[in-house]
Amino acid sequence: MSNGGNGRNGGDRAWAAAMTIGAIALCVLPFVANDYLVGTGLTLLMWLALTQSWCVLSKMTGYVSLGHVVFYGLGAYLVVVSWQQVPLVLAVLAAGVLAAAFAALVGLPVLRVRGPYFVILTFGLAELVKYSIMAAESASGTASRILFGTPDIMVVYFAMFVLALLATLLLTLVSRSRFGQGLRSLRENEEAAETLGVPVVRFKLIAFVLSAAIPGMVGAVMALRSTYFVVGGVFDPMISITVIAMAILGGGDNARGPVLGVVFLFAVQELLWTQAPLLYMIILGIILITFVVVLPNGIVGWAEARGRKRRLATLSSSDRSADGQAERPR
């Protein structure tokens, strides 16, 4: 047993060291890289924050949301319509509050359904909000907006860096808490969890609200990246689909999965865009299908399975060695 514990502790230490090195590298990047690489790092941080926050609800409870983009879009829209009218910091925080409030408002009716019905409902909700805002903008004679005086990319980058850290910390705390254990029980068997006293409705609603706040602020920050704003761009369903793909590739229900999934898929995307732009979506689809069939538990599940095999092999060899010493004549 001690060997297994040492293996897990060693894995945790390696993970912590890798995360620390990665965080330091991302902190240093804006000071040593050109604008293209800084923009690439900003996009990586954006996907990391979105995927970590999505996992708070969907990975922990099994409620797969296809409407994560609605919180991102609401946050972006709030900052744009309030641009240069309120302090930027307050606008970003208000975007997170707005997204969380919207999740609290729609959470109870939305979370009454499960499985494919929940997936369809969240997608429909995101589309409803998108086209409602587009209709309101059209009625007011505003098809798009131009932002003047947006912050320097360094400001946007480090704001996103903070949000990515917050999202990672949030998922880590939730996954290690009793609240997280309650969410996992919903994923395994919601009826049994309710019978055992888990406050199912309250836990689902809290997870839904927590998963909404950070993407609202992420959308607010990313709206400042470009001076040209179009409603359809920030409510693009591909944002939700990409987040789900990254979470599936990473696997697990803790912060490791999203990090690995985001880094892997983002690197593949960048490589395909430059090397095979015409075959980009085809190759990406093949990769996703391969992962779902061959590695259904993602990169984390594959790594954990290999770790268990190594620990079992170590324990077996130790037991054989101990048996040999016991049978040796005195």
Task: Explain what you see.
- This protein is an all-alpha fold and 330 residues long.
- Helices cover 81% and strands 1% of the residues.
- It is built from 14 helices and two strands.
- The longest helix has 31 residues, at 2-32.
- It is globular, with a radius of gyration of 22 Å.
- It starts with a helix and ends with a helix.
How many beta strands in the DSSP annotation?
A: 2
The portion of residues assigned to helices is over 70%
- Please identify the structural class as seen in this structure: mainly alpha
- How many helices? The count is 14
Low-confidence stretches: none
Mean pLDDT: 87
Q: Major sheet: order of its strands?
A: 1-2
Distance between the termini: 28 Å
Radius of gyration (CA) equals 22 Å
Q: Main β-sheet: number of strands, strand sense, barrel status?
A: 2 strands, antiparallel
> Strand-residue fraction?
under 5%
Shape: globular
Order of helices and strands: HHHHHEHHHHEHHHHH
Concise structural overview:
The chain has 330 residues and is mainly α. The chain has helices spanning 2-32, 35-61, 69-81, 88-110, 116-139, 153-176, 178-188, 190-195, 200-223, 231-234, 237-250, 256-275, 280-294, 298-327, and strands spanning 145-146, 228-229. A two-stranded antiparallel sheet has the order 1-2.
